[in-house]
């Protein structure tokens, strides 16, 4: 239903080649007797004219939380001749069991079994595809690496091939604050009850889950190096297993920005890659845009691999990328300027390493030698990082990194002269440095920025390195104090056009709060300019096929009503009284009434605090409230989690409460500590 006086979005599609039917409560049996709950859309005549199945398997609730995205995608596939299923993972939504952690082998076992069961159904042709964003992109790659015979193709969006270095936990050996933040959110998400309209045993199942639900931060802080825990589920451990045709998609504003290029370079499967300007969202819905006709592109992929139709998808260039240019470092933009480029090979023969030397605040061609190299020092405040944005931005606004000038002021910066001509980079920049520090544990944060003639600094890419991990992420060691070390920081994959007249800047610092948890003591960094080089992957102009996408569309109608719109705020304060810097992120997600009778109200409160001169004062907390109502049935959960530290320990604390009506029947507490291991 549309609100009174409103009209459907012009991009919404409701008329399809195949009439569709929806099954809101399909239960898939598993070998151990458990069941996975699914919501399915399929052609009305699939019982007599079987079709391939497409599945998305995530723990975020098909019945309410992700239903808006589901309804804007899966009916489209069904209307074009597929059975499209959104499956709740074991322990989530209306499925059986308890969700004990991310990406377990048992999760993959469940999905492999579900694929086999689906292939045998009378409405299925026996061929299955799998897609998803984030968790669903991860397990699409992981399950494909298991090579189930019925799985004919996958589409992975916003995913990773390396769970240690390129997820929400550790990056460059640094502890990401999202390592704890996501654990706090997961505590809330997994506390939500099954829907009593679908399960008579909802109360028993809910109580069982609440009683056995782990606080997964304990696991994640148990594994601070790249051990077997993280190698499991990281498809980069054995690319040869990835033989299923793979369409890999991400956005430059997403945290999961590296996996597309890695798959194109290393995986043996038939593959194609698309990277747009997007944050962590599907490309037909993402802001900032421009969006693309992702559903049409996905349909071309499915039709080619699951229906043996020559859609031309494999004649497209191997790698299609959006090349952004300067946008005033404005995170509020709904669309960024730029153009689509293509590469028919990856790595591309048209990309060459361009080396720039650091010296006296300047970046110059390495062979120039006119800059006067120095030995320079920096003692950055622990709260540096005001404009770092959120680690995983989902939308335009303050989640996106903004003007970097304030963060540059607490960094060692090196600029080129104004560029004589446009310069395009595509790939991973790297910075090789000779540095020393006065503490045995320290972080390096490197940013490449575009600086306009007016001085606005726009982040293009960044990378982080825990110097204890300077050799590898398996066997770190303390940093020898005041001893020059040669290290290399790899930045995220990027594509960007620097406009003539702008300057290219590289910034080096030791703090990036509240994105990276700080090292325990204030650090003085010494940089030896004579031995430091920035290497850029510079792309030469060349003729390639034009890149064209159809306009973005999505299926409808939406099956919910917004009773009360939500509100969000993100504020930073620096106290002149006590010197502390405090971040507050408040999210009221409003009230949503679903057509099947359920109402959901949710809110979150996220806080960060640190004293600039005392990194070990760092604290963060995150609380959630989730409420559900159907007629006279009312339940809600409240969760809270907090992380603090000293020089040697992390202190973790959490609480989970569940209420039926006004009666609290679950109240669980976690309070523990984990030793800091080279972080």
From TrEMBL:
Source organism, top-level taxon: Bacteria
Gene3D superfamilies: alpha-amino acid ester hydrolase ( Helical cap domain), alpha/beta hydrolase, Galactose-binding domain-like
Residues in coiled coil: none
GO MF annotation terms: dipeptidyl-peptidase activity
Keywords: Hydrolase
Domain Xaa-Pro dipeptidyl-peptidase C-terminal: 299-555
UniProt entry tagged with the keyword Hydrolase: yes
InterPro entries with a match to the protein in the record: AB_hydrolase_fold, CocE/Ser_esterase, Galactose-bd-like_sf, Xaa-Pro-like_dom, Xaa-Pro_dipept_C, Xaa-Pro_dipeptidyl-ppase/CocE
NCBIfam families xref list: CocE_NonD
Name of this protein: Xaa-Pro dipeptidyl-peptidase C-terminal domain-containing protein
């Amino acid at each position: 239903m549309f609100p009174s006086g409103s009209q459907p979005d012009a991009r919404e599609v409701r008329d399809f080649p195949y009439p569709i039917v929806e099954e809101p409560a399909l239960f898939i049996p598993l070998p151990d007797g458990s069941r996975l709950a699914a919501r399915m859309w399929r052609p009305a005549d699939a019982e007599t004219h079987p079709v391939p199945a497409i599945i998305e398997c995530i723990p975020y609730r098909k019945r309410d939380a992700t239903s808006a995205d589901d309804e804007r995608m899966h009916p489209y596939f069904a209307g074009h001749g597929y059975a499209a299923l959104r499956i709740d993972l074991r322990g989530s939504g209306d499925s059986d069991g308890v969700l004990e952690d991310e990406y377990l082998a048992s999760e993959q076992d469940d999905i492999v079994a579900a694929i086999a069961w689906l292939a045998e159904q009378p409405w299925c042709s026996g061929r299955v595809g799998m897609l998803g964003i984030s968790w669903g992109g991860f397990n699409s790659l992981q399950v494909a690496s298991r090579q189930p015979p019925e799985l004919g193709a996958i589409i992975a969006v916003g995913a990773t091939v390396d769970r240690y270095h390129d997820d929400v936990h550790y990056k460059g050996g640094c502890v990401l604050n999202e390592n704890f933040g996501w654990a706090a959110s997961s505590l809330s998400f997994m506390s939500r009850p099954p829907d009593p309209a679908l399960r008579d045993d909802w109360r028993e199942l809910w109580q069982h889950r609440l009683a056995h639900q782990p606080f997964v931060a304990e696991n994640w802080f148990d594994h601070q190096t790249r051990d077997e825990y993280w190698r499991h589920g990281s498809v980069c451990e054995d690319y040869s297993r990835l033989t299923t045709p793979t369409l890999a998609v991400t956005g430059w504003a997403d945290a999961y920005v590296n996996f597309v290029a890695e798959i194109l370079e290393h995986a043996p499967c038939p593959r194609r890659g698309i990277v747009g300007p997007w944050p962590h969202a599907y490309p037909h819905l993402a802001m900032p845009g421009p969006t693309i006709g992702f559903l049409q592109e996905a349909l071309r992929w499915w039709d080619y691999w699951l229906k043996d139709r020559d859609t031309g998808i494999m004649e497209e260039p191997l790698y299609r990328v959006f090349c952004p240019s300067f946008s005033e470092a404005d995170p509020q933009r709904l669309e960024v300027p730029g153009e689509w480029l293509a590469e028919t090979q990856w790595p591309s023969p048209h990309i060459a390493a361009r080396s720039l030397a650091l010296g006296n605040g300047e970046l110059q061609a390495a062979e120039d030698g006119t800059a006067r190299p120095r030995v320079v020092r920096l003692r950055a405040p622990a709260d540096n990082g005001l404009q770092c944005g959120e680690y995983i931005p989902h939308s335009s606004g303050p989640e996106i990194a903004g003007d970097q000038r304030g963060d540059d002021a607490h960094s060692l910066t090196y600029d080129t002269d104004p560029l004589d001509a446009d310069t395009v980079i595509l790939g991973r920049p790297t910075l090789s440095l000779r540095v020393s520090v006065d503490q045995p544990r320290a972080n390096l944060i490197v940013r490449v920025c575009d600086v306009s003639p007016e001085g606005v600094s726009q982040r293009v890419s960044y990378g982080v390195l825990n110097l204890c991990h300077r050799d590898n992420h398996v066997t770190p060691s303390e940093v020898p104090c005041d001893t020059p070390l040669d290290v290399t920081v790899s930045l995220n994959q990027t594509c960007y056009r620097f406009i003539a007249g702008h300057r290219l800047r590289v910034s080096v610092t030791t703090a990036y709060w509240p994105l990276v948890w700080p090292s325990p003591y204030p650090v003085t960094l010494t940089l030896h300019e004579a031995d430091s080089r920035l290497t850029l992957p510079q792309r030469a102009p060349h003729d390639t096929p034009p890149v064209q996408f159809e306009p973005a569309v999505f299926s409808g109608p939406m099956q919910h009503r917004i009773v009360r719109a939500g509100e969000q705020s993100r504020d930073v304060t620096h106290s002149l009284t006590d010197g502390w810097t405090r971040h507050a992120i408040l999210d009221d997600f409003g009230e949503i009434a679903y057509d099947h009778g359920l109402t959901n109200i949710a809110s979150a409160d996220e806080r960060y605090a640190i004293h600039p001169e005392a990194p070990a004062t760092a604290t963060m907390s995150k609380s959630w409230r989730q409420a559900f109502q159907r007629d006279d049935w009312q339940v809600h959960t409240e969760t809270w989690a907090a992380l603090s530290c000293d020089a040697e320990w992390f202190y973790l604390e959490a609480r989970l409460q569940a209420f039926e009506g006004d009666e609290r029947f679950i109240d669980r507490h976690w309070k523990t500590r984990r030793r800091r291991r080279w972080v």
